[in-house]
Amino acid sequence: MAFNIGDQVGDYEVIGTLGAGGIGQVYQVRHAISQRCEAMKVLLSDRLGTGEIAERFLREIRVLASLDHPNIAALHTAFRHNGELIMIMEFVEGQTLRARLNSGSILMSQSLDYMRQTLSGLAYAHASGIVHRDIKPSNIMVTKNERIKLLDFGLAFQGLGSDITRTGLILGSLHYMSPEQVMGERVDARSDIYSVGVTLYQLLTGRAPIDGAGEFAIASGHLKEIPIDPASINPQIPARLSGIVMKALAKSPDDRFQSADEFLEELGSLHADETMTMLPTPALTRDTSGFAPRKADPTPAAGRPTKTLSGASVLAAVARELALYIGPIAKVVVNRAAKQAVTLDELYSQIATEIGSESERKAFLATRNRYSIDG
Q1: Domain residue spans in the chain?
Q2: For labelling, which of 17, 88, 237, 324 has a CA lying 20 to 30 Å from the CA of 224?
Q3: pLDDT of residue 330
Q4: What is the pTM assigned to this prediction?
Q5: What 8-state DSSP symbol labels residue 130?
Q6: For 202, how many CA atoms within 13 A lie in the half-sphere containing its CB?
Q7: What is the Cα–Cα distance from 234 to 230, expressed in whole angstroms?
Q8: Phi and psi dihedrals of 228, rounded to 5?
């Protein structure tokens, strides 16, 4: 059943539409008594007659009810309304990682922080015997305070040794599937590791590790093709980080990281100065394949001569610009702000607040147009 804004569903009022997943429509609702905004998920009307889909929806409710972690969107309650099963979840204000990537360049350190949080949530889920099976940028929400929330456990199952995927049945998003998932075989936590590896590869390089003209080509690629080493695509990527990604993308589960904790530990061992590069991130054009290159502007805008540099060089150059106004502390200010800023514009906006004089602040902000990121 579809709901309209203003409809009452139990103690909740529908106040907006948030989108649709594979099996459910999601609305923003407000509780009549607490006035808290929450997310309400219901089965899509064309899926109501499908017993297997209804079972998946019920399973998602029960999986989420067993989880309590800061990096997993929480289930608040579930009930039936006019014969329909309703799920009420935490309302996560922010944007998906897919949308965030589409908005502009992103620091490597920020990308790694997102993946560490993702792995932290998965490590908790895996310890509870739950495999997500649909990790991808559109199922990873970034909140306003940079907290990661994993969404959509509709394909998840409880019991790492379970085999709920029938032979020949492929569930999930093809570009992010592990080889064993593509084959419709039994999967475990290491399948999620592969999907995180695909997502991290895209964050670092701006492209999917495996792509093709059609579904057969993509599926075959997961089984047979070895992705190009990320450092070969973007020399700013440290060789050690590139090796970590390639290990996560190993064809055999036995050759990958054996747990999310192990993957997390490897990412955590990278030094901060290795990850300060600003990555040029092309636009995402469709959810199935992830990234598609954004065409670069062939000439700078009039009046905006630019100097194209690597991400690390840009940070150093910006620190020199800022030092003219606040002195040697500028390098510390820039490096600190770079851990939070997603784009170069955001970086400039944050550090400009350190300049007391409005005229000097405007003069500093004008230097933004001198630089662009080497893609």
Answers
A1: 8-90, 94-291, 307-373
A2: 237
A3: 81
A4: 0.71
A5: E
A6: 32
A7: 6
A8: -65, 135
Q: CATH number for the 94-291 domain, one of 2.30.33.40, 3.40.720.10, 1.10.510.10, 1.10.3860.10?
A: 1.10.510.10
Question: Amino acid identity of 355?
Answer: I
Active site residue: 11, 134, 188, 273, which one? 134
Cβ burial of 166 (10 Å; 0-12, 13-18, 19+) is: exposed
Q: Under CATH, which number does the domain 8-90 receive?
A: 3.30.200.20
Lowest mean pLDDT among 48-62, 111-125, 198-212, 319-333: 48-62
In this prediction, residue 21 has a pLDDT band, given cuts at 50, 70 and 90, of: low
pLDDT tens for each residue of 135-169: 999 999 999 889 999 998 877 766 544 444 433 34
Please name which of 133, 151, 134, 254 lies closest in space to residue 187, comparing C-alpha atoms. 133
Picking from 368, 346, 344, 349, the residue whose alpha carbon sits closest to that of residue 280 is 344
Annotated catalytic, 261? no
